[in-house]
Amino acid sequence: MVGSNVLGGALVSCSTDPMTGWLRDGCCHSDEADLGRHLVCVVMTEEFLEFSRSRGNDLSTPAPAHGFPGLNPGDRWCLCAERWREALEAGMAPQVVLVATGIAALDVVSLDDLEAHAIDAVT
C-alpha cells in the first residue's frame, strides 16, 4: 500500500499520463528527501499555470533533460502543498482530487480548504 489519502482511505493514483509524484509512480506521497512535499493532486488550469509561472515555477515548459513533459490545462499533477496553499491565499487554487491527495498534506493545508476545492465527492 502506498499510503493514505486526506479522507483516511487508500491513496489512489493521481496521474500516470503525465507521470507524476515525487517518486514518479503516479501517487502524491513522498519521502524525507521531498522538501517540496508534492502531496496535493490537482487538475491544472491555464490560470494556475500562469500563476505558478509568475511565482518562478514554470510548469508549462517541457524540460526533457529532467524527464518533465510540461503540463497543460486538464493534466493532473502532484503539487507541492505549500504552493497550493500559496495559490489558495491568492485566490488561484486549482481543483483537488481528494482520494489522490496524500494525508501528509494536512500538515500544511486544512481539510476544509481542500474539500472546498475538491472535484471528487466528499462523503
Mind telling me the C-alpha Rg? 13 Å
Order of helices and strands: EHEHEH
What do the pLDDT scores average to? 94
* Number of DSSP helical runs: 3
Gross morphology: globular
Q: Give the terminus-to-terminus CA distance.
A: 22 Å
Number of strands: 3
The percentage of residues in β strands lies in 5-15%
Structural class per helix/strand content? alpha+beta
Q: Strand arrangement, largest sheet?
A: 2-1-3
Low-confidence stretches: none
Question: In this structure, how is the largest beta sheet organized?
Answer: 3 strands, antiparallel
Q: Which bin fits the share of residues in helices?
A: 10-25%
Task: Describe the overall structure.
With 123 residues, the protein is of the alpha+beta class. 20% of the residues lie in helices and 11% in strands. It is built from three helices and three strands. It has helices spanning 46-54, 81-89, 111-116; strands at residues 38-43, 76-80, 95-96. Strands 2-1-3 form a three-stranded antiparallel β-sheet. The protein is globular. The mean pLDDT is 94.
What distinguishing features does this structure have?
single chain; 123 residues; alpha+beta; 3-stranded antiparallel beta sheet; 3 helices; 11% strand; globular
In short:
The protein has 123 residues and is α+β, with helices and mostly antiparallel strands. The protein has helices spanning 46-54, 81-89, 111-116; strands at 38-43, 76-80, 95-96.
